[in-house]
Design goal:
The chain is an all-alpha fold and 455 residues long. The protein has a single domain (15-454), classed as Hydantoin permease. It has helices at 15-26, 29-41, 45-73, 77-87, 95-127, 136-147, 150-169, 176-199, 204-212, 221-234, 241-246, 255-283, 294-305, 309-343, 347-368, 382-409, 412-419, 423-454. The structure holds tryptophan. Tryptophan binds at residues 25-26, 28-31, 108, 233-234, 236, 239, 241, 327, 330-331, 395.
């Protein structure tokens, strides 16, 4: 039986287009907003080391698995899982993996777009010169004035959801490639400049020590879980985003090479963000564990005190919005592709529906920072709960089952056929995806569950 399928949604123009799009998906708020603040909350170096280990031993093999499944199935993740299970005479329940992914995509995008809204708001604050000469206290006031105002947050959230739907409705292939080609290098240069500024603060070595010298006494089981969850989050794994991008990948592209390239670029951006932010934190006596507002309360100080800071600050937040934008579209693409395939909807209609659902769920996050800030379950707000449940539970579970499907259920012939790797490289992937990644995920889960019961 021939497996040369094509996707009804089209194909990337080249391997490069895929690398750019997948890197666009991976590099986003996770790298620049989330990585620094969770690193700050979890004590630094040791946490970073666990995160790097998870990227290499869990993230990369699972990314390869997702891409190969997508390219083999050439459909939305729900239908890809259904078809691959049927062809191999495996249990039809595998398709639920696709459903869980769609659910996770909505949940994540609902809060992602609220935070992206903060970045949008900051474009205008930076451009208006609000940060000029500002110190830690002033910058903190500007941040809390934004997040405690539900109407403003709602407005920015709405704008970002609409922006996302516009791109998704036109199809992720058109335009995205060009945007990412310019924006990624620009973002990279600006981050390099910010690291340069951080060197001038006098606390650079303290920031570097915080990030890179591990103190394992600070590493709790919960921190290990968060580091693993973040490895999934930052590489866009565990919910079908990379799988659906893989379904548009040309047949001759090397899955291993592209995965490693994407993971390296993603990790580099996260580490640079950390190197820019922590020296500023220490130089100004700020709190590394300040939480989700961390970058919004640190980088403006740099922009307020460097030459041409208004220009660079504006540019930085514009680029951050673009990075979030190219990530957001991948969160919703699995759902939109499925609506088009199974309900004969036009992409435009599918995008409108997806946008509406995202917008409504996002209200919970909008109010988490103001009206509902005191309504907590286990001490967590709606936003905290959503973030924890998606990044630290649903994505690793999704990733676990993707690894099990690729490593145990699919035949070796299928995976060899798609990966086209030489003996040792294939063996390495096979061991990682079959044993190392699943066992690591399960062990990290059990470690936390054990703590809850006996700790
Ligand atoms: N990786 C993106 C970031 O770091 C977020 C993202 C996009 C994502 N698509 C995803 C996270 C799919 C999990 C799953 O900002």
């Amino acid at each position: 039986m021939s497996v040369k399928r094509t996707s009804i949604h089209g194909q990337w123009s080249s391997r490069w287009a895929f690398v750019l799009a997948a890197t666009g998906s991976a590099v986003g708020l996770g790298n620049i907003w989330k990585f620094p603040y969770i690193t700050g909350e979890n004590g630094g170096g040791a946490f970073v080391l666990v995160y790097l280990f998870c990227i290499a031993c869990i993230g990369i093999p699972i990314m390869m698995a997702e891409i190969l499944l997508g390219r083999r199935g050439r459909r939305s993740p729900i239908n890809t899982m259904r078809v691959l299970a049927r062809e191999g005479h495996h249990h039809p329940a595998w398709q639920y993996l696709g459903w869980i992914g769609v659910l996770a995509g909505f949940l994540i995008l609902s809060y992602y777009s609220v935070i992206a809204g903060w970045a949008l708001a900051y474009v205008f604050r930076a451009a208006g010169g609000l940060f000029v000469g500002a110190g830690g206290e002033r910058v903190g006031e500007i941040f809390s004035a934004l997040v405690t105002d539900p109407e403003r947050l709602l407005a920015w959230h709405t704008i970002f959801v609409v922006m996302t739907m516009i791109v998704v409705s036109r199809g992720v292939q058109s335009g995205l490639e060009k945007a990412v080609r310019f924006l990624m290098p620009a973002l990279f240069l600006l981050l390099a400049m910010l690291v340069g500024y951080a060197m001038s603060t006098g606390s650079f070595s303290q920031g570097m020590a915080f990030l890179f010298s591990p103190d394992f006494s600070k590493l709790t089981p919960a921190a290990v879980l968060i580091a693993m969850g973040h490895a999934f989050f930052t590489l866009s794994l565990g919910m079908g985003a990379i799988m659906v991008y893989g379904s548009y990948l040309p047949d001759d592209a090397s899955i291993a090479q592209t995965s490693v390239t994407i993971a390296l670029a993603d990790t580099l951006v996260a580490l640079m963000a950390g190197m820019a932010i922590f020296p500023i934190v220490f130089a100004h006596g700020l709190e590394p564990g300040a939480g989700p507002g961390l970058i919004f309360q640190t980088l403006p100080i740099a922009f307020g005190n460097m030459p041409a800071g208004t220009l660079f600050g504006t540019l930085f937040f514009v680029l951050l919005v673009f990075a979030a934008w190219t990530s957001a579209i991948s969160l919703i693409e699995p759902a939109v592709a499925w609506l088009v395939e199974n309900h004969g909807m036009s992409r435009v209609m599918a995008s409108v529906w997806a946008g509406l659902i995202t917008w409504v769920v996002g209200l919970g996050t909008v109010f988490s920072f103001n009206l509902w800030a005191d309504d907590t379950i286990f001490g967590l707000t709606f936003f905290d709960l959503l973030d924890f449940a998606t990044a630290n539970v649903i994505l690793p579970l999704g990733g676990l089952f993707i690894a099990l499907f690729a490593g145990w259920t699919l035949s070796r012939k299928v995976t060899m056929d798609e990966l086209k790797l030489g003996g040792i490289s294939y063996q390495l992937w096979y061991i990682l995806v079959r044993y190392v990644a699943p066992l690591a995920v399960v062990a990290i889960f059990l470690n936390v569950v054990g703590l809850l019961q006996f700790g």
